[in-house]
Every structure is written in C-alpha cells, then in structure tokens.
Amino acid sequence: MSSPTDETTPDDPAPASLDAGERVAPTRSDPLVAAASRPLGGPVGDHAAVGRHWFWTPQRVGLALAALALMLCWFGKASCIQQYVDESGQAQLDWRSGRPYVAMCYSDVVPLYSAERLDQPGTFPYATSWVDNPGTPNAQTRYMEYPVLTGLFQWVNAKLTEGWSAVADAGWLPGGLPVAIYFDITAFWLAVAWLVTVWAVGRTARRRPWDACLAAISPLVLVHAFTNFDTVATAFAATGLLAWSRRRPAVAGLLLGLGAAAKLYPLFLLGPLLVLCIRAGKLREWATTAGVTAGTWLAVNLPIALTFNAGWQEFFRLNAQRGMDPDSVYNVLSYFTGWTGFDGTLQPGQTPTWLNVVTGVLFLVCCAGIAYVGLSAPVRPRLAQLGFLVVAAFLLTNKVWSPQYSLWLVPLAVLAIPRWRLLLGWMLLDALVWVPRMFYYLGTDHKGLPPDWFLGFVAVRDLAVLGLCVLVLREIYRPADDLVRRTGDDDPAGGVLDRARDVVTVRRRRARHAVA
C-alpha cells in the first residue's frame, strides 16, 4: 500500500485540449458522426454559435431521438397485441401460427398479465397464489415472481387498465382487449423511464452531452424497451449516478435503493463506489449512500416480507431453482461440448446447486479482480468504467442473461467508453441476437432455426461484451487513450471523487520491458 503524497499521479492524462465548459462536438471528434452529419451540412464549423439555440439543446435532441426510437419499438411490439374475432364472436389476442416469434414482437408484458393473475379483479401481488401443473408430480404453488417494486408496478398498471376499461365501456375512451390496454399503459411508463435514463446520462456526461444520443438511438432500445420492465431499473440507476455526480450521496442512495427494489443490478454499483472511495479516502460519503440504499430497500420490501412472506420469497426461490438460461455462457458450453456438469440433468423444481456455486464464485472472483484494478491503476478509474466492468461481469458469469438485461449496460457503456462507432456496432450485434432467438423458440418443426444458430450468435455477443471490457481495462491503465480524460475531465460521474487525491493504492510491479 502507498501513503498519500502531495504530488500528482505521474501517469496523468494529457493536458486538457478544451477550454473549461467547452462541449465535445461528436461531428468533429468521431468519424461515424461526422459522416452521418453530411446530409445535414457536415460537422459544426469553427464559428458556429454553439449553445445559443433557444430550444434545441443536446439534451432535448437526445430526448427527441429517444422518443422516436421508443415509438418505433412500440410499433415493433404492436403486432403482438392485435386481435381477431373467434367463431363464437369473442375478441381474442391473435397469437396464432407463432405470431410472437415470426413477427419478432414477443414481450413478457403480454403473457404476464394473465400468468401473474393481474387480469383478475381483487388480486394483489405476493398475496395471490395459484398452482402450476395441478394434478401432476410437478404441481407447485406460485406467486408474483418479480421484486417488490416491479411487482407493484405491474399491479398499478393492471388497476389503471381496469379504470380505463370501465371508462371505455361508458363510451368516453377507446376500448379494446384488456391485455392490449394493459400493454399500452405499461409501455407508456416504460418509455418515460427510458427518457429519464437518457436525460440522466446527458446530465452526467457534462462536456459530452451529445453522448446521450447513443443511449437514445441504441438498437437495443428499438428491440427491448418493452420486452420486460427493465427500463424502470435503468432509470433509477442512471439518476442515482447523476445524484452521486452532483455530490448528493443520500439522494444517490435513495435512487439506488429504489432501483434495487425493482431489479438487483443497481445494487452492484455500490461495489465500484466502495473501491474508489477507499482509494480517495471518501468512505463517509460511501457509507451515507450505502446506508440510505439499504434503508430504502428495506422500507420497500419489509412491509411485503412481513405481511406476505411466502409471496415475497418467490423471487429468491425461483432464482435459486432456475437453471441455466438459453442465453447464458453455460448453456453455450453445455450444448457445443455435450458436458452436463452444470446440473443440466436436473428435473424441474430441483435446485442447481453446482451451477449456483459456480456462478457465484466466478462473479466474486471478477469483482475481486476489478477491485484490484481500481486500486492499482496509475490514475484512479472513473466510476462509469468500474460500474460497466462489474455489471458486464455479472451478465457474463450469471446463469441467466435475459435479452433485455443488455439494456443495463447501455448507460454505463455510454459513460465509460463514448466511442460511437464501437458502441453502435456492439449494440446492433446484441440486438440482432433477438432474431435467431425468436426463430429458435419457433422450433424447427415450424420452420424455425436449430439451436446452433442462436447459440452461435450468443457466443459472438459474449465475445463482443468481453472485448468492451478489455478496452475499458486498457483505457484504465492507459488513461491518455480515454476520450473523457482527453478533454481535461477527471471523472464527470465521480462527485466527491472528481479530482480527489489518492489515499490508498496498491503498487503494481512494472514489467521489465515496460515503456515509460
């Protein structure tokens, strides 16, 4: 360990190339954006009046692009809420002939409306139960399977659907199948959550506000914004980072706690914060954030846990008993090697103990390695860099990688490695995994794809994310290559960490032939 010194770090990045407060113009700095700007007049000129337009700020442009992308996403999913009239004259949801897979419009929101008993009046998540596979040896009592905030989010939307349908029956609003109304209401709030995510990314990026457009037009948003409920968690995580960047540790803890009550992943950001706060001697601020995060999570969860304990435990029970997901690296290895050592021979309802141990140990090993990186790098890494590494490590080592989980990486990737061409390439590749996935679920009996195609795409996606991690590590150890630091910034998302002196570091033994 090294002690604090009065000297600056010898490996500081190159001096600032921008004046204080000057924005980075992607049309000048990124070849892809410069080429895309040519139909609109080309890159911004040297004498352009930047920042003087009364309305079209980078923030509003990003939000407008996000609204356009979300609208396109809704149209893509709308095929799955079309209806038809059956022989008895009743309107039915048109999922005939494998429509969700052929049209690639599948969304968990639609089947969960009835599967979670949200379509039945008088039900409440975690209190309402049902039996799967009744009358069979695999019969099992089930409850709402999502964390508390996400479960309540679904329930509120179901109640709004009941109210909309009642008003529509009176002739005051357009009507439709309740499940279609429920999907539209849910999609509206999910869209608002992603707009909040884009807004928070743009505010956190400071001198690179245009980078928020990367999150706005991400191909992953076009495909997965309404696949599940994950934009709620991304909104809390992104605003939590924004609050931390504004030196509001308590507010950051509140938002991260709410995010953890919706999905688990915002909780992982406390790990990188701890490492960086140890290095900078800012443990008091970290303790405030961590304490408020824990308190917020408990405030949301305790009332449900104490009142409906069996239903509250369902999320944790299902995650423990869940086998390897088709999108996981374990399934890829098991399929191509034929090895069933990942508990692949277990029957439904049995806990894959060995798989759970492997995933947990691998993730902890990755976290330990990331902590070493955070303490040994020549310049303290940026918060977004370590946050991206931790979330990517979780996805790569976890037994479940549902396709919408990739949305978790988008805000962190934009803040960590704002290289437009590279990120758009990865996001497009990740989004394209949806195509073989849908045709894989269609089945070869219905002219679908064999598993080889789908799992091959998954392997390429995993390698792409791994490549991004390697790039982040390279820029951490070679900060002069970091596009954010090239502008003279230290850590725009760092808050109290921004330009703070190192207090605790780990000395690395330099390679014998290292270049100074």
UniProtKB/TrEMBL annotation:
Record's subcellular location: Cell membrane
Keywords: Cell membrane, Membrane, Transferase, Transmembrane, Transmembrane helix
Any one GO CC term of the record: plasma membrane
Membrane topology, from the record: Multi-pass membrane protein
Region Disordered, annotated ranges: 1-25
TM helices/strands, residue ranges: 179-201, 213-244, 250-276, 354-377, 422-441, 453-473
Family label: Belongs to the glycosyltransferase 87 family.
UniProt-recorded name of the protein: Putative membrane protein
Species the sequence originates in: Amycolatopsis endophytica
